[in-house]
From TrEMBL:
Name of protein: Phosphatidylinositol 3-kinase 3, putative
Originating species: Entamoeba histolytica HM-1:IMSS-B
PI3K/PI4K catalytic domain ranges (all copies): 1-218
Gene Ontology MF annotations: 1-phosphatidylinositol-3-kinase activity; 1-phosphatidylinositol-4-phosphate 3-kinase activity; ATP binding
Tagged with keyword Nucleotide-binding: yes
């Protein structure tokens, strides 16, 4: 699935080393670069596409990058869903010039997602935004159909090999991971694989998850908040923007209605600072 696996080395209690993912940029950095640091970048469809086009000037280079993007995106969508990886946002997902998506920072697993003032920051089963699909060629493209098939095929393969996954997690029970201490913590893993369904129903189930993820507005709101919480400038304005982001999330979390959501209004309020 063209995933990027980087090395980790434990050297003691709470001490270790992790391999640096070279020649990559965070999705947030790309969004800010393509739109001059404007928060509206989180609601645009083309920043990643433009960035990859700039890095891959020939048709063959871009097509290869596009294929890498489709495969790696599919792999990470399935992996982060099945493993319940939380804290997924545009500062924890990287993109390389060759089109490979790379997820980092796996501090929350097995469905333990980040909360903000009691509200779940993440409502999507995994990160799949319209800008990702734009790189694939759009929702009606061959690239997106390939992505859906890759996701579903990978999901079915994992279901067939669930014993191996359970065994690996069982061996990690004694490692001291705060979210994996008891066998009960692995219930999420088994539930995510919907083992009670047949293959036809399981494929339809994951196709539905793809649509749910794609329509999850809170993913992009969360990305917008990260752009504002980590701007490219320092000083008082940063503090003002963070307060604005804090207030914005609170209001969205209390009143969010996907049928009434107005992305332009969000951008206007964010851009005030």
């Amino acid at each position: 699935m063209r995933l990027t696996c980087y090395e980790c080395l434990a050297m003691g209690n709470a001490v270790g080393m992790i391999e640096v993912v070279l020649r990559s940029e965070t999705i947030a950095a790309i969004q800010k670069k393509m739109y001059g640091g404007n928060v509206s970048a989180a609601f645009q469809e083309d920043p990643l596409y433009k960035w990859l086009k700039d890095k891959n000037t020939s048709d063959d280079e871009f097509l290869n990058a596009q294929q890498n993007f489709i495969y790696s995106c599919a792999g990470y969508c399935v992996a982060t869903y099945v493993l319940g990886v939380g804290d997924r946002h545009n500062d924890n997902i990287l993109l390389t010039p060759t089109g490979h998506l790379v997820h980092i920072d796996f501090g929350h697993i097995l469905g333990n997602v980040e909360k903000f003032k009691g509200f779940k920051r993440e409502t999507a089963p995994f990160v799949l935004t319209k800008e990702f699909v734009y790189v694939m060629g759009g929702k009606n493209s061959e690239g997106f159909r390939l992505f859906v098939n890759l996701c579903c095929d990978t999901f079915l393969i994992l279901r067939k090999n669930y014993h191996g996954l359970v065994n690996l997690f069982t061996m990690m029970l004694s490692t001291g991971l705060p979210e994996l201490r008891r066998t009960e913590d692995m219930v999420y893993l088994l539930n995510s694989l919907v083992l009670d369904m047949n293959e036809v129903d399981a494929r339809a189930y994951f196709e539905k998850l793809i649509n749910v993820a794609l329509e999850a507005v809170m993913t992009r709101v969360n990305n917008a908040i990260h752009i504002f919480a980590h701007p490219d400038f320092k000083g008082q304005k940063k503090e003002m923007c963070f307060k604005e982001a804090f207030d914005m999330f609170t209001s969205v979390a209390h009143t969010f209605d996907p049928l009434k959501f107005d992305a332009k209004a969000v951008c206007k309020r964010f851009n005030h600072c």
